[in-house]
Design brief:
The chain has about 110 residues and is of the alpha/beta class. The protein has one domain (about 1-95): Rossmann fold (3-Layer(aba) Sandwich). Helix content is about 35%, strand content about 15%. It has four helices and four strands. It has helices at about 1-10, 40-50, 65-75, 105-110; strands spanning about 15, 55-60, 80-85, 90-95. It has a four-stranded parallel beta sheet. Strand 1 (about 15), helix 2 (about 40-50) and strand 2 form a beta-alpha-beta unit. The radius of gyration is 16 Å and the shape is globular.
Length: about 110
């Protein structure tokens, strides 16, 4: 029964990358607390998805997760889980992702 509850919970999780998706990533990591503005419509989208019952997990490769959480709060985002591990989710929203659809040949062509 517990496994089924976890599977149901994971069906409502959307994982969202921080830099370039929620936070404009124009100047790199210049300070401990990220500088820059929210990406256009990102606050609206997160609130909309949250209101529809989705749990949003923010993932980042930044080491200071508390700084990311602070930036989110300072910019009006609702309380969100922040992690530096890829969470189990129904979808991943990332500005540097390549969709895999059993197409390794096409993917390799991106890089060579």
């Amino acid at each position: 029964m517990k496994k089924q509850n976890m599977e149901e919970e994971n069906k409502k999780v959307i994982a969202v990358d921080f830099d370039g998706v929620l936070h404009e990533f124009k100047e790199g990591w210049t300070r401990e607390i990220p500088e820059g503005k929210p990406v256009k419509d990102s606050l609206w989208a997160i609130k909309e998805l949250t209101n529809k019952g989705f749990s949003i997990v923010v993932y980042t490769s930044r080491a200071n997760l508390e700084a990311v959480s602070l930036w989110l709060r300072q910019n009006g985002f609702p309380a969100l889980e922040v992690t530096n591990h890829k969470p189990i989710a129904i979808a991943y929203i990332d500005d540097r992702g390549i969709r895999f659809e059993n197409n390794w040949e096409s993917i390799v062509k991106y890089f060579i």
